[in-house]
Amino acid sequence: MQYEFTIQVPPEVAAHQEKLKIGVAKKNGIPIDEIRHIQILKRSIDARQRAIKINLKIKVFVQEDFTDQPIKLPDYPNVSSASEVVIIGAGPAGLFAALRCIELGYKPIVLERGKDVRNRRRDLKAINRDHIVNEDSNYCFGEGGAGTYSDGKLYTRSKKRGDVQRILELLVGFGATDQILVEAHPHIGTNKLPGIIAAIREKIIETGGEIHFETRVIDLIIKNSEINGVTLHNKSTIATNKVILATGHSARDIFELLYQKKIEIEAKPFALGVRVEHSQQLIDQIQYKCDIRSPYLPPSPYSIVKQVDGRGIYSFCMCPGGVIAPCATSPGEVVTNGWSPSKRDQPTSNSGIVVELRLEDFKPFEKYGPLSGMHFQKSIEQQAWHIGGETQKVPAQRLVDLVDEKVSTNLPLTSYKPGLTSADMKSVFPEFIHKTLKYGFKEFNKSMKGYLTNEAVVHAPESRTSSPVRIPRDWKTLEHIQIKGLYPCGEGAGYAGGIISAAIDGEKCAEACIKTMKTK
Ligand code: FAD
């Protein structure tokens, strides 16, 4: 017999099958020797009280053995001679669009400007060590897209976006731990993601799909408001009337191209701010209300939202036990973001702390029309580059000094490898952003006592939170509102924010595109 329960237990009980059996037997009046196994279906941490509890949804096997049923991938058919769909970009949106095409019997041709996961690493080293930014291969561009060298958080704020469970199961099928199906806030980690991405690529190739690396699309060929093909960096062309455009939020050249070609795009509000680093121990102390974290608890994340004069300021993409990374995609700019290994075992934690932006904030850049937000974003990244010393060093300030409006006389070492330049954040950001950060951090300290500490350091800017542009599409067909056969997809088009939602949108675009096609 199998029974499902929800139960709240101390962390050390949740971590041990035998202790859990004792607790479940006692609470539910089941003789302990009849419990053969307890399967954990969902796990979340309740850290609101000093005595931290783990919420578990469990399946109890009573007088019945448990057999593990590994997650299986769909039966992907061979599509080598099937009708083709061109997909631009091998981020989560592009890769999951490709997999869905194959599942439905169509052949994806994926065009990716960056390199495969292995070769991409060299370019990441070059940014960190030599301050060299390769415009096609960096933390945002390359196989797996912006999510490959990340914390790999796998949750989406909006459950309405689609079938999250399906994407998680596919990730498990391609090699992610099955614990991502259990955790309320799952993550994969930067050391595991490249292997999963490589397994997806191998499946695409094995089934007859194509992936072309170091292949940048520089033009869209359009005739009579219908896509006819794409032009590549070497001026060769691919004829096609089905293109999924999944180029991400950092492909500024694609936004420029669409604007020049008078293909409709819109400015979109986004958020921008800094990345703040604390010691993980301090965050654990604040969140778990303890001196030393229990060995049964993971390094703690945090999530915080406040308002300053009616403007939102919030934590974004928090990485417990993680590292701040240089995420510029062009020379002459600096950008930060964060990653963590699967164990989240680095001594520092970091989080984007970003200020909500509105369309009216982009007014000084209105001459750029729908690209005004993008130019606003770019101007701050370039300003930070100048102030940082025109390398990949970033302007940095102790958190307390930011609030007290003092330049830091010295800075501690942080996880950000290219280095720091002491600077006043007032010189990096427009006044309204600086003010919101200053008062926002004071508010944070009211909810998270100890957060506002001299040891914490802000790094500027965190500016690629979501796309500054939306590429409008028909809500039903998902085609661009003017161009037949063009499917704006994923984060860059403004329809996703994060790995999971981008993957979901990739699948949706593939389905919508295929609906209009005939099998060969
Ligand atoms: P992208 O991942 O941006 O992929 C777009 C792809 O298109 C890129 O590979 C790019 O090289 C390619 N491309 C661009 N232009 C062209 C062109 N002209 N021709 C050919 N190819 C082109 N999200 C989470 O959910 N959890 C996290 O923990 C997380 N951490 C992050 C950490 C870092 C360091 C970064 C940078 C991002 C992180 N994100 C995280 C965000 C997440 O990675 C993105 O939301 C997601 O990757 C968006 O997917 P996408 O496929 O829409 O676009």
UniProtKB/TrEMBL annotation:
Q: Which residues form a coiled coil?
A: none
Please give one Gene Ontology molecular function term for this protein: oxidoreductase activity
FAD/NAD(P)-binding domain mapped to chain residues: 84-253
Residues covered by the FAD-dependent protein C-terminal domain: 269-465
Its domain of life? Bacteria
Q: Which Pfam families would you find in this protein's record?
A: FAD-depend_C, Pyr_redox_2
Q: What is this protein called?
A: FAD-binding protein
